[in-house]
Structure formats: C-alpha cells, structure tokens
Amino acid sequence: MPMKTSQFLLFTFLLTISISKLNAQGTLWGETSNGGATGGGTVFKTNYDGTGFTKIKDFVLDVPGNNPNSRLSIGPSPNLNGKLYGYSIGSGTYSLGLIFQYDPATNAYTNVFDFDGTNGATPEGALLLYGTKFYGVTYNGGINGAGTLFEFDPATNSLTKKVDFQLTSTGGIPSGYLTLFNNKLYGTTSNGGANNAGTIFEFDPAAALGSNIVKKYDFNNTDGGVPLGELTVSGSRIYGTALVGGANNKGVIYEFDPAGAAGSNYVKKVDFDGATLGSDPRTGLVLVSGTMYGIANGGGANSSGTIYTYVPGATNASKKEDLPSSNYVSYGTGTLLYANGLLYGNTLEYMFSYDPTQPTGSGFTKVRDYDYYSTGTDVLGGFTLAPSGKIYGLAGTAGLAQAGAIIEYDPTVSVTISNPPTNPQGRIYFNTSSGS
Questions:
Q1: How far apart are CA 189 and CA 178, in angstroms?
Q2: pLDDT tens string 384-412
Q3: 3-state DSSP of the chain
Q4: pLDDT band at 90 (very low <50, low <70, confident <90, very high)
Q5: C-alpha closest to that of 311 among 302, 320, 303
Q6: 356 phi and psi, to 5 degrees?
Q7: Which pLDDT tens digit goes with each residue over 9-62?
Q8: How far is Cα 395 from Cα 407, in angstroms, rounded to an integer?
Q9: Do strands 42-47 and 54-58 pair parallel, antiparallel, or not at all (unpaired)?
Q10: Alpha carbons 121 and 410: distance in angstroms, whole number
Q11: Interacting residues of 144 by C-beta distance below 8 A, sequence separation 6+
C-alpha cells in the first residue's frame, strides 16, 4: 500500500499567558481554519508577546483519518525514536481504521496502514513496542468478527495478523492494551469466555500461528467482569481492574499470576463501593515507587469519580481525591501518566495533574478545560511522554469537522487558565476525508 504523507492544520491560540520566568522566550505556532492561498487555512508562528507574526504555509483540506482514539506510542530506536504512532478508528481506505505516524520534530503526519476487516477493524487502545515491532489489537473484524491481534513493523509499514479472537475459546472484543511480561504479552477481552464476562489471555510472539494464544482466565462477574483497563506488572504478578461485578457490582481490582494453574491464578483484591472509594473503573493502574494509582470513573463524594491508590498485594485501596462535580459525563479516561513527579490524566471535560506527595485531598490541579474547537474533547487513550519532554494525546472530537486532533502539552510552560481556557498548545486537526 503506498504511503500518503498528509497535510494538517496546527492550531494554537493566545489569550492570557503567565510565563514562569520573565526572561522565558519562545515561539507559538498556530493555524487558521480557512483562508490563505488555497482556502484551506494556514500555519503561522508568533512570539509569546504577539510580535513577529509570520505565515509559514498554506494548506488544503486533506487530512485523512477521523476520531483518533488511542494512546500514542513511541517508535523504536534509532531511526524512528521520537516519532509517535496512533490509531484513527473511522477512516482509511476501507473506513475501518488506520495506523498513522506523527513526527513532532517536523510536524509531519503520515497514514502508514489501512485496516481492511480481514486483518481487523476498529483498532483500540495503544500499540506496544516489543523489540523493533509493534503489537496491537482491533475491537472487531477478523475471521470471527471478534477482533484480531496483529504485529506491525514500522520499518516497512507492514502488518501481520497473528490471532483471530473467538468469543468462546479466547474471548472477544479485546480491551485494547497489551502488557509485556517474561517475553509474552498479556491482555484482556471485554466479552466472551465461559461466562460472557471477558477473559485474560496470553500471547507468545515467538510461537507459531494457531498456537500462540492461550486463554488464562474467564471472568465471572462475581469476582469482577468486563475488564477494560490496561494490565500492570508488579513483581511476579499482574494487576488490573474490572468495570463491573464484585460484592457491590461496582467493579474490582484483581491480581493475576501468569505462572499459576487454571482456577488458582486469579484473586479479587478490592471491591469498589461507589460513595467512598468510587465505582466503575474503566482505566488501568500505574505503578509509582511501589504504589499503584488509578481512576474510578464514577462514585465518590461528587459522583464524578475518584483518584485512588493501591499497594500491590493488599486487600484494600485508599481514595486520594474526589474528582470535581460536573454537569456532564466526566469519567476519567486513559491510564494515568507519571512524568516529572506528577500524574497526568483526563476526564471527558478537562486535563488534570495530581501530585502524589501531597496530603489526601490537596494534590489535584485542573490543567485546563477541553472544548471542541481550541483543544478537542474525548481524549480517551490517555497521554504519552515524548523524548522531548512534551506530553501528547489524541482528542477524538475536535475542530470544525469534529473529527479529532493531536494535542501537545508542555509541562515546563506555566499558564494561567481563564474562561475560555488560554493554554497555548499545538493541535493537528483531522477531518472526515478517508485518506489512502
């Protein structure tokens, strides 16, 4: 399949900016949504104080892909280190999703692979780099329509289907994330299995086709069901969350032993309770200095979710923050990112940081609110820390076409948030062109 390097629009806006150092210098890059020589908008640059405005490039409306939904992944060294890879779900030659590459150094966006249904459709979660190749899953497609597991080589932009999920034997509708442990990859499905509540599976990249996947556990709702979040390794165990089930039917934290025998390799550790700890955990856990942090997407004092901590092996978890109340659905999305001593996360409405060194109830800071046009919304996949120190994410809905955006946040720049938000960050806007 020929690659097509696609043009994009990079959006930045300025209102009230408070720079942490008075002598800080820098250039802001932005876009106009129309106009310019071609009518497709322009990219421009200007200094922080508004001087030095320069139009850099005119663009046509030709950004393939729409509704990017994944967490971005960093390419392998040495040639692709620093380049970011992600998914766009409702687009590509067959409108079944694509893999794209984004180079922050050059602002170049390239569609590198189109899913066709046979090799999968609707890619979910994030690509996992193992060696020099990426591994990932699709939500549906494949022979059984229950999703696929694939290998993608960024050196050649070629994809090899490794597994066709089957509802009973492996579980179906994979949850989107793969985790590496002892040279094998582990993940979950949100449907299928013996109890139609999802499964944990093990994939061996070195094994032959047809014998490279093993179902390790069938969820049963009593001890948790419908796992959606990313798995996290601590020592010889793997930990995760399930959206429903447990004693209160509000979700659980569980421990999985990859070496354990069937029937004894899974232990429910914590039951979410709703009002106190939270409920409906959709995201995974992140391990920081021996403690795991996560987001409960509902419950808590404001019924808008919580930030909680969990010590691996324990039978209890502790609430650290109640997420602010909201007029809209505002559940946390994506596993928390740990960077520069802080945890960064999302709700559907805003980006936040959390300082784990602060006392309970005082570590939460709203970084900025999201909106459709200036930032994008629905940052479902969470954040990625690039080698540059900047943080990147994907907004599933953004821009005039409401088709999504790549967003960039520089944590070294201090800004004052007003209403509307004023944080000047880069955006690459998608539109509904299918691309090829």
A1: 11
A2: 998 888 888 887 776 656 667 788 888 88
A3: CCCEEECCCECCCCCCCCCCCCCCCCEEEEEECCECCCEECEEEEEECCCCCCEEEEECCCCCCCCCECCECEECCCCCCCCCEEEEECCCCCCCCCEEEEEECCCCEEEEEEECCCCCCEEEEEEEEEECCEEEEEEEECCCCCCCEEEEEECCCCEEEEEEECECCCCEEEECCCCEEECCEEEEEEEECCCCCCCEEEEECCCCCCCCCEEEEEECCECCEECCCCCCEEECCEEEEEECECCCCCCCEEEEECCCCCCCCCEEEEEECCCCCCCECCCCCCEEECCEEEEEECECCCCCCCEEEEECCCCCCEEEEEECCCCCCCCCCEEEEEEECCEEEEECCCEEEEECCCCCCCCCEEEEEECECCCCEECCCCCCEECCCCCEEEEECECCCCCCCEEEEECCCCCCCCCCCCCCCCCEEECCCCCCC
A4: confident
A5: 320
A6: -70, -10
A7: 333 332 222 323 333 345 554 444 344 443 434 434 455 444 454 533 333 333
A8: 7
A9: antiparallel
A10: 33
A11: 164, 165, 166, 167, 172
User: Residue 202 corresponds to which tokens in the numbers above?
Assistant: 């093990």
Burial of 418: CB neighbours in 10 Å, binned 0-12, 13-18, 19+ = exposed
Minimal CA–CA distance to 393: which of 354, 435, 336, 432?
Answer: 336
Strand partners, 113: 99
* Joined tokens for residue 311: 């010590």
- Cα distances from 338 to residues 344, 355, 393, in angstroms, run 6, 10, 14
Q: Residue 84 phi/psi, 5° resolution?
A: -110, 140
**352 in Cβ contact with 369 (< 8 Å):** no
- Which pLDDT does position 367 carry in this prediction? 87
Express as a percent the part of the chain with pLDDT over 70.
Answer: 75
Length in residues, the chain: 436
- Tens of pLDDT along 138-178? 999 999 999 999 999 999 999 999 999 999 999 999 998 99
Token code pair at residue 111: 């569609």
- Summarised one tens digit per residue, pLDDT across range 342-398 is 999 988 788 899 999 999 999 999 988 887 666 667 777 889 998 888 888 887 776
Grade residue 234 by pLDDT with cuts at 50, 70 and 90. Answer: very high
